[in-house]
Amino acid sequence: MSAVTAKQKNGSGPVLDWAAGHGPVTGALSATTGAFALATTGAATGMPPGWTLAAGAAGALGHTVTGLRARAAGRTLATRATAWLLGAGWTTWAMTTGPLTWTALGSLATLGIGIGASARASALYEEAREEEALAAAERQVARELSAERRAIAAEWVDRIQRVCGITVRVLAVEQWPTGAGFSIDAELPPGGATWQKIAGESARLSADARLPHGCTAAASPGIDQGRVIIDVTTVNVLAEERTYPADYGPLSVLTGIPWGYRTNAEPVLAYLREQCALVVGPTGSGKTNMVHAILAGFARAEDVLTWVIDLNAGSAGLPWVLPALGGEIEAPDGKPIRPGVDWLAGTYDEALTMLDTAVQVAKQRKMRYQDLLARHNTDLLPIGPQIPQIMMVIDEGAEILASPDRQMRRLAEKILEVIRIARAMGIRTVLTALGATGSVLGNLMIRREAKVRVALTGGETEGMDLSKMFPGTRGLRVDQAPYKGAGFMGTPESPAALFKAWRILPNQIREIIAATSARHPTLDDISIKAAGPAYVRRWDADRIAWMRDHTPGTGPAPASSAQASAGGVLNLSALRTDQPTAAVPEEDDLARRFREEIDGLFATAPDPHTPTDPAPPAGGGLNLSALRSEQDSPAQWAAIAVLLTAGAEGTGASAIARALADEHGTNRQTIVGWLKAWVEDGTVVRIGEGTKARYVHRKHAPQQPPEN
Fold this sequence. Notes:
ten-stranded mixed β-sheet, Rossmann fold, four-stranded antiparallel β-sheet
């Protein structure tokens, strides 16, 4: 071990860096001490003085060649060569006259000071020269970039004038760091022009700019009402599939949860402390994957507990629960793994229990946290790891709100109560739906509270009314997002625009469960007391038996065979196939669900057309065999439901058409044709004539006296 290293470890002595280069002072000392040593040695040994001059000339020549290769300044080359020659000259003179005289020593000291001063001046000059070269290069890049920006600005000023009839003044052009496009900050002309006029011409601007498919020119408000920001996408990042980011770091509901990425490849955040959310998407649009991405964000949050309601076999929450409950995941520290969601309801009874618990928690928080609210001088409960927010994710919750079923209506009332009373107390909902239709968005509470909205289109146009989903936003077209998982997302902080959800893989769900298990907060004491045993025992074996059997009850039980044989009851067997266990096609899902609801509300009677029982029903049984085969459509089932709901009073074709317009787009002429066919086969009874005609379902029709 060297002496310097030992002194450093002992903490004493100077710290010397032998690998460091010479500066002006050390260089001058090295040169003068070297010259003095050489002069004294040469004088003592009788060295020929000419050798010293030759060595000095060689050193000067070598440094000059090296400096030229390094492109050093002429001043630096001259300084180094002069130092070598002066040093060699003094050494030769000192060897001849004697280096130990005061004249020799004084001249050597003067020479050293001169060498140091000139070296310092040369170094400063070189630094200034390098800085100037760098600055010149930066100015050249800026000039080139400025030229590109000026060209973009001029091009888009002309384009906006040509397409929109507005002359704007571009103030800045910012290239996106991702390289996917750029943003234009423009000033609107005086006279009342608004940014909405440019936003409404998004499609024409994109076509005029010859942007690739999937790229848009979207306008949004600027820093004030006289400015506009135009985001121009030049690379279609929505066409590629991106998996959920592998960084499972902590998040907070207060700072936003990422739900996907915009066309500029930047994440888009959902701020849900006070807002509810609505996610719509038809089958095949990637809605289930979007739900998993939402649950992933909630699982990463340190101040969120997630409660999930999914009456479709609990499919949305099971991947977040079963790996932990089944012991399939092990924590590195040996601690138990907590499920990725805090509570999962896959049955009607469990969902009702969960909603009742949420209402109780909200009410108790309102009463018991008054002192805390007063200390923080706020009316919003301070959410954090100690008092977590409860996020209720209700798959197809919007359909529950619009369902005519009595049990579903009870759930709907509880959901609306949670939405109405629990905002300040930190309980919010995320509802999903199959489409953006009038029945989904018809509830005022949903429109008012669900300000975070997502419409996954996947290229599907049916049931995707973007004007209802994002009122006041123009220029949104379904064909702009034809990719699975792509669509539109709007929040109070970010106007509705194109986005895409990350693809989250099953193995990532397991990784997130393991990575976030220790991060999940626990329900605060006040909320636990309010929740009671219903919450504490949510993972009891009898409560989660349905998860392992995979046979949850999703609604009213089907009628028994004994009920089917009774008279005076509803029969839908004409719509069943010869093999009841066969899988129902996906496009017939709505009709199947409606049949199940009808079977649950009314008993069933045998169909006269059923091969196994050709005899007619014993009495008054309802037969819907007229809807067999090609007539079996969700719209006709909805029309039958309207007739059943109307009861003995009946209803007219116009009223049925209005009831079905938003959901199915059925016109009055089609309804009249159905009613005529149903009157002929006895399913419906017509009362009255002309404009006063009304139609009553056979079940509610008045009994006609027998003919003599």
